[in-house]
Amino acid sequence: MKIAKLYSPGFVRINFFANFGSLRLKCLIFSSTISAILFLSACQTANLTEFPEITFRHTEPIKLNVRNLKIIDFFKPTYSPPHVEHEFPIPPAQVLKTWANDRIKPVGTLGTVLFLIKDASVVEEKLRIDESISGLFLTEQSHRYRANITVQVKIVDIPNTSDSIANATANRSQTINEGISINNKQQFWFEMTEFLVKEFNVAMEDSIRKHLSNFLSDH
Fold first, then answer.
1. pLDDT per residue over 147-196, tens digit each?
2. Residue 77 CB-density burial (10 A; 0-12 exposed, 13-18 middle, 19+ buried)
3. 193 — phi, psi (to 5°)?
4. Using CA atoms, how far apart are residues 35 and 184, in angstroms rounded to an integer?
5. For residue 124, what are the β-bridge partners?
């Protein structure tokens, strides 16, 4: 009695190589996918934009009849949500210190001008977006950023003269698209800082010329 063979050697060979080819293809696809993810991740990290310094050396200095300039930063970042000013390419407080050094020029022999940073915060607010199927076809605003600057310029240590004060504030609120890249968010934050400090520049100069006019020098 002959026992029937349940398989054909040729079939097994063909099926084995077919399965091996399929497995090899899957491994190749998986490997390519991982490589692409790692590459994109590396690009996101390596290609962070380098931003120019924000300065005011191109503007006319404000000459004051005092001997010294002293910058005091009372604003202390919390480094925790909802505050994000520490994540900015150039934090607002840093730009304010640059403004003071570039724009205020002591030319006198007595007294001190204090540049007091009271607020230089940026707060992030998450906005509600449409999470339904129709929302998949929309590009919505996902976050709002509120930036605030408050600075006081005070002249002190002038004999027989009471302290003179000039105040200025600047505020800006902007929203950002959902799904924005890291580089584009950094650019958004940089431009936000630029607009904010430009507004402050005008406000503070006007305040100094109005409230500290007795200390202005043309020399």
1. 999 999 999 999 888 899 999 999 999 999 888 899 999 999 999 999 99
2. middle
3. -65, -40
4. 24
5. 145
What is the number of other CB atoms lying within 10 angstroms of the CB of residue 59? Answer: 12
What beta strand segments (E) does the chain contain?
A: 62-64, 68-73, 104-106, 112-126, 141-156, 164-177
Integer CA distances (angstroms), 129 to 71, 123, 138, 144, 213, in order: 42, 19, 10, 12, 50
Secondary structure of 52-67 as H, E, C letters: CCCCCCCCCCEEECCC
Q: pLDDT tens digit string along 3-61?
A: 343 333 443 333 433 344 443 434 344 444 444 444 444 444 444 678 999 999 999 99
**Cα separation, 29 vs 47, whole angstroms:** 26
Query: What is the identity of the amino acid at 208?
Result: I
Using a cut of 0.85, tell me whether the model's pTM lies above it: no
